[in-house]
Amino acid sequence: MLRAELGVGLTEAKAVADQVLAGAYTGTLPEVEYLARKLRAAGVDAVAARP
Fold first, then answer.
1. Is the four-CA dihedral 31, 32, 37, 39 of positive or negative sign?
2. In 1-51, which ranges are continuous DSSP H helix?
3. No. of H helices and E strands in the chain?
4. Secondary structure class of 4 (helix, strand, coil)
5. Which of 14, 17, 39, 51 has its CA 20 to 30 A from that of 2?
6. What CA–CA distances, in Å, run from 32 to 14, 16, 39?
7. Cβ(20)–Cβ(1) below 8 Å
8. Please, are residues 35 and 5 in contact by the beta-carbon 8 Å criterion?
9. How far is 51 from 43, CA to CA, in rounded Å?
10. Among candidate residues 29, 4, 32, 9, the one with its CA nearest the CA of residue 20
């Protein structure tokens, strides 16, 4: 899902996934909520939160 939504390769998608899992992925709240919705639709438990 990350590869398709972000238009990145496998290596970059893994790096983003690692950032997401570590709570270090940043973006605007609408951007992060959009990705969280897409992840939830793919079966991943995801929540967008402000630090």
1. positive
2. 2-6, 10-22, 29-41
3. 3, 0
4. helix
5. 51
6. 17, 12, 10
7. no
8. yes
9. 24
10. 32
What's the predicted TM-score (pTM) here? 0.72
Condensed to tens digits (0 to 9), the pLDDT of residues 21-30 reads: 888 888 888 9
The Cα–Cα gap between 51 and 38 comes to: 20
Q: How many CB atoms lie within 10 A of CB 45?
A: 7
Are the C-beta atoms of residues 10 and 3 closer than 8 Å to each other?
A: yes
| Token pair belonging to 50 | 């402000």
* Token pair recorded at residue 3: 């590869």
pLDDT given at position 23: 82
**Percent of the chain clearing pLDDT 70 (strictly above):** 98
